[in-house]
Amino acid sequence: MAFQKAVKGTALIGGGAIATVFGLSQFSQYRDKHGALVQVQAAEGVPVRKGPLPSREQQIQALQSDAEFDVLVIGGGATGCGCALDAATRGLKTALLERDDFSSGTSSRSTKLIHGGVRYLQKAIMKLDFEQYRMVKEALEERAHLLKSAPHLSAPLPIMLPIYKWWQLPYYWVGIKLYDLVAGSQCLKSSYVLTKARALELFPMLRRDRLVGAIVYYDGQHNDARMNLAIALTAARYGAVTANYTEVQQLLKEPGTGGRLRVCGVRCRDVLTGKEFDVRAKCVINATGPFTDSVRKMDDEKVPNICQPSAGVHIVMPGYYSPDNMGLLDPATSDGRVIFFLPWEKMTIAGTTDSPTDVTSHPIPTEEDINFILSEVRNYLGADVEVRRGDVLAAWSGIRPLVTNPDSKDTQSLSRNHVVTVSDSGLITVAGGKWTTYRAMARDTIDAAVREHSLPAGSCQTMGLQLEGAQDWSPTLYIRLVQDYGLESEVAQHLASTYGGKAFEVAKIAQVTGKRWPIVGKRLVSEFPYIEAEVVYGVKEYARTAVDIISRRTRLAFLNVQAAEEALPRIVDIMAKELNWCEQKKKEQLEAARTFLYYEMGYKVKTDQLTDSSEISLLPADIERYKKRFHMFDKDKKGFITILDVQRVLQSISVQMDENTLHEILNEVDLNKNGQVELNEFLQLMSAIQKGRVSGSRLAVLMKSAEENLRRRQAIPVDRSGGGL
User: Fold this and answer.
1) More confident residue, 616 or 146
2) Angle at CA 172, nearest 5°, toward 167 and 174?
3) Is the pLDDT score of 9 beyond 80?
């Protein structure tokens, strides 16, 4: 059976690799399965592309050539791109096909942590499970590699475990110290204990009552979608033909030795043009994450499932919910799951793990999921911090592809260990694992491919390999961007931490603002540092839809769904110019992106907080106060306000605002979409704001500000004016 031929990915990869990037040396080193350091002769250095990468159209053309590839990888997530990079750096002729965009699935929807797995180590010790221990050991070594391979996209992050019972202090301290010990020389920074006062100083939002102290340990954090893309782009630099929006429809087979059919390629379709063509390869690798079994069944319909998916839901809240550089971990929530509370991209991510799900349905965060996370957040934050439902700016659910026996029901008992299987027809499948160990998974997979298909390749070359943008990056690179191009400091820091040394290429195409400062760099939305030039550059990075830009080239959709929707029209206009879209195509892209935000990024559950059926639960005095505010705009007592009413009031207090912005502001509250805001809709809005279900309503803030301005402008009585007759 294919499953019996599995090769478990538990080899310990460590030691610093001697091989250097862009001119690999003759030798590299690794640890064998017994932990011994082994030095081996490396493959010949593989030429690296300098300058611009091939366009997507050129990559599609290369796929349609008659040449046979050594390796063809199905799946453009972290593992698939890692396999393509590993194969290409060994000198193998490599192709990669992804039916959507690179990192469009699980790899962009993670907790953003690069970690060994504190809870897995706990299980390994409690159950004396050596396999789990080896998995944690490998993950910690891979964590160190990942942080070094793309320092612009990743960094160590201190994470706090607040302690509320005295007996927990020594228990967790021992566990965390063992975590440091297992990491050995790859330990990022040593963990330490904090007193109650010091813990509150570093994390002032924490609940104070019953707090005993805290323990701080270190793991890594990264921009997952950009990291995935960097792996794909680096593979392309080493000669891999990488194509997104290319769907595999069936596996091609031909007679092999012993009369058995062997997989010899795929029939695929260019999703953007509809054109179908065959791609032939000596070895086909299935690296499709949660969709592993669907590809395996293309090979053999009767094969049993080996992938049991688990969903992790995450929400994004404003940055003031957490310190800038300190995360929080609750190792045991009310239902036994782990919850993370982390700063990321100047926002705060709160997320949980291990909810069994159906892989065939697209993960959509529910109101129940969001409320559970909010309740856990409330348990750890002080009473003076009001955790509001309206502060959820985005929400998403990511599928974790765990490998298990098909009869197993409990995904929480599963580790992230990966398995490489070889079917009777030669299809190689890599499944399980986790983001942190993508490189080790790819190494084991290509090792199996070389062995199974007798491919002419040397040893793995990716240990120590720097990814796209890492070569010329430094922590002070953003200063040169400010000085040389006249970018805002915040924008420059963002470009440096997103593109690394390639940030200069983005800065070169940034538009002049026409202002004294900044000189270049027009923002897509005012509150985020993303600029229009990134859309143009994103097309060069194989972005082909508006969703690619808002979710993976930039992370706007993951940070604030309303801001992403606000930026969409401009993004579509820029992409239309780059890709020659017609008006109909632009409309389709806008609609598709809005649907993505609505269902997959939490916009639906956000807008459901204020509907035309929302109840009004206000005190009579509040109702009268809000009615007066409403009638300041509705002078004619029509019972509703329009853009003209708002413009009239704003002009009276000398405030200018363009009509498109006003239309957007009113549309947020116009529940029946009739172009006007009625009194009942306004009262529903104010009731939802009071309950915390809605926050940041521009209309509510605008009307309150206008009311205060009008009061200040009322005539001052003569007897208090210091003069008069």
Assistant:
1) 146
2) 105
3) no
**Pair of tokens at residue 35:** 């932990």
**Exposure class string for 573-606: b at 16+ Cβ within 10 A, else e:** ebbbeeeebeeeebeebbeebbebbbebbbbbbb
299 Cα distance to chain centroid: 31
Measuring CA to CA, which residue among 519, 520, 609 is closest to residue 562? 609
Indicate whether 57 pLDDT > 50.
yes
Q: Which two tokens stand for residue 78?
A: 């972290």
Q: What stretch of H or E contains 199?
A: helix 196-202
Query: How many CA atoms does the CB half-sphere of 557 hold within 13 Å?
Result: 27
For residue 63, give the 3-state DSSP assignment.
Answer: helix
Residue 536, pLDDT score? 98
54 upstream amide cis, omega within 30 of 0: no
152-184 tens-digit pLDDT: 999 999 999 999 999 999 999 999 999 999 999
The structure's pTM equals: 0.84
Of 20 and 570, the structure prediction assigns the larger pLDDT to 570
With tokens 């430094």, the residue in question is 474
**What are the helix (H) ranges across 580-615?**
583-600, 603-607
Decide: 425 and 303 in contact? Cβ < 8 Å: no
CA distance 337 to 323: 23
CA-to-CA distance for 325 and 158, rounded, in angstroms?
A: 7
Tokens of 378: 């409330």
